[in-house]
Design goal:
Layout lengths: L2 H16 L8 E4 L2 H12 L5 H20 L5 E6 L5 H6 L10 E4 L14 H10 L9 E6 L14 H11 L4 E8 H11 L1 H4 L3 E3 L5 H15 L2 H4 L3 H10 L4 H10 L1 E5 L4 E5 L12 H13 L2 E2 H8 L3 H13 L3 E4 L2 E4 L4 H10 L9
Parallel strand pairs: 2-5, 2-6, 3-4, 4-5
Antiparallel strand pairs: 1-7, 7-8, 9-11, 10-11
Length: 360
């Protein structure tokens, strides 16, 4: 950690230590953006929750063992919330002792197929055909960690998934490990009957209050005084309930619960009970945009427009409004739903009869 970062962490610790003093006529306000960003960087370095890794690692090991004796048992699907980083989880959950004589291939890793939906099937075919197999007895795992990236909800946009479905069940010499968000899976099952073909699924579990507390403990212990790291059990129960047991939502709610206490005597940081920011009134077009982002995961504007059957310039204004309201985030060219608003958006879409996923 460089000196500038150390200085930043020390300043955070200083603010939290001041919170132990008695504050009169305090006013609470959001923590400075710079402080929040520093805390987020530390959280980003935390290992994945152990129950996530254990669940996926155990399922992979079990199905690989099954495949050794039953070649038709050659697939496993890992399902999770649109807020879960399923790609990272799969990459970090391989049981290494089981892979000594196994070749792991990510066949579609470099593909970006959404810009031309009519070519998705051909692009997937070409990627599979390009794989060089020199030893026919070699054990190969095909990993598709983000299935939702290879279809688009538009005319012909999921034909590639139908082709892939057939490829998987007819390729018993490969073991197929697939990750998918459960909103996408529910839609694809509706249009492609995936559950009838890819029947072995495991859901990333919801975390309980104790698991969330344990996961955030290294950050809390480093920067928050002991008196502030031991809020009531209600705090953690409430955090787990509001976040739907999802760690990405929980981390944002936890950060939201850190407030700046301002009085005549001092400025200090303190924890308050977690709560969601108010969801603004959404236009019908906003709901369709948000639903598409949850269905497809990260999307470029051009792909989002295609999924909505709109011209890109016709949705530009609504995207800007959603960005300004912080309902969606932008990472380089990709748009995604802000985890802090996920439970509220999910409820809003459900109330307006959208097809939504079911969190475990």
């Amino acid at each position: 950690m460089n000196l500038a970062m150390v200085s930043g962490w020390n300043k955070i610790q200083s603010w939290f230590s001041q919170a132990q003093a008695t504050v009169t006529e305090e006013k609470l306000q959001d923590i400075p953006v710079a402080v929040k960003m520093k805390l987020e960087k530390i959280i980003d370095q935390l290992p994945l929750p152990s129950s996530y890794v254990t669940t996926v690692e155990s399922a992979i090991a079990q199905e690989l063992k099954h495949w050794e004796t039953e070649k038709d048992a050659n697939r496993l699907v890992i399902l999770g919330s649109p807020m879960n980083e399923i790609d990272d989880l799969i990459r970090n959950s391989f049981p290494n002792e089981k892979l000594k004589a196994v070749r792991v291939i990510y066949p579609f890793e470099k593909l970006e197929v959404r810009e031309k939906p009519a070519r998705i099937t051909q692009e997937l075919k070409s990627a599979i055909e390009a794989i060089k197999i020199t030893d026919q007895n070699e054990k190969i795992i095909m990993v598709i960690p983000n299935l939702e990236q290879y279809f688009l909800r538009c005319i012909g946009g999921w034909e590639g998934i139908i082709w892939l479905r057939e490829q998987i069940v007819n390729s018993p010499n490969y073991f197929w490990l697939i990750g998918c968000n459960h909103w996408s899976w529910k839609f694809l099952d509706h249009v492609c009957q995936l559950n009838a073909y890819l029947e072995e699924t495991v859901m990333i579990p919801q975390l309980n209050a104790e698991e969330i507390k344990s996961w955030l403990k290294p950050v809390a212990n480093t920067f928050i005084p002991e008196t502030e790291t031991k809020p009531s059990a209600f705090f953690w129960d409430n955090l787990a309930s509001l976040s739907l047991g999802n760690i990405q939502v929980a981390r944002q709610l936890w950060l939201q619960s850190i407030q700046m206490s301002v009085s005549e005597e001092e400025e200090a940081l303190k924890l308050i009970n977690p709560s969601f920011p108010k969801l603004p009134i959404l236009a019908a077009s906003d709901r369709y945009i948000l639903h598409s982002l949850l269905l497809h995961g990260k999307m470029k504007r051009s792909s989002l427009a295609l999924s909505l059957g709109e011209k890109e310039e016709d949705i530009q204004a609504r995207i800007q409004i959603l960005l300004r309201a912080e309902l969606i985030d932008r990472q380089q060219e990709a748009l995604m739903v802000n985890p802090l608003f996920y439970p509220s958006i999910k409820q809003e879409l459900n109330q307006n009869n959208f097809l939504i996923g079911e969190d475990a």
